[in-house]
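<tokenise_the_fold>
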Amino acid sequence: MPVLGSCGICWSMEDIRDQAHLSADAVKGLNFIKNSGFFEFRKYYRSGLRSHIFEVVLTEDVKRETRGEIRDGARMFPKARPQKMFRIFRSRFESKDDIFREIRKYKLLLNFLGKEFIARSEEFIVDYRGTGVSRIVLCGLQEYVEGQILDPWRLSGKTPLEDLYRDGEKNRPGDPAKRARKHVAEFTGRVRQLIRHTGYIPDLAGIGNLILTPMGRLKLVDINNIVEIRFDPVIRLDDRGYPSCDSSVEALFLLESRLLGREIQSRDPLFRHFLTPERQKKVRLLEREFYKAL
């Protein structure tokens, strides 16, 4: 993995946390990155609002991807598989205590969901000097999860999991859709435990936050945005202005109802409070305002 150090200082006028886009070359020039030559950074297509995200790939794998290699008499171009996902958080922290509070969010998810259901991460503090002033920045090396996005709002048909795994299913041992249903059931059960014991819910609503692996496992890859649940009329927005609590409750409902076939809204106090037509109408307006402001 990349070795973090204090060499290769890269001065820029704009703080990297404020930049809309950050190139892979710019990352290699940051003062806290030691460029060993063994690894390359590649911009990840899903760089989010809360962090810059890069794939960390082996340099040799990138060469094979571009030059190809001979296999059974034919030249193949194997895609370089990321070793880790490198994240640079955009949030500003006044002290290390603020950062430790942020990291505790991840620990909370790890304790309740377990390493089976979240993308594990090693998070660390760096001394960023790209603006000429020393600042503390939070970064992370996160597990790469291969698979397809599970979007709760795009589950259609009578057998959505079977439909997701239909293409190429012959190459997978067993029944991945059956395994996926089992893991969705366990995942939602653990999310409910988190809600019941802490009063928090993870961000289940962001596009690409939930990934289904080829073998039928479900993983949450947005591991830092968790929001408090309050049973009152106020629709609360997260630090980016998105109604993530209400949308995550709706995502949980869609997973349980469409994938697990549960009839639960009328008797569940969580859904009865958050999924009324009047409240959902207000949430939709807030979502539209959020996307218009991007």
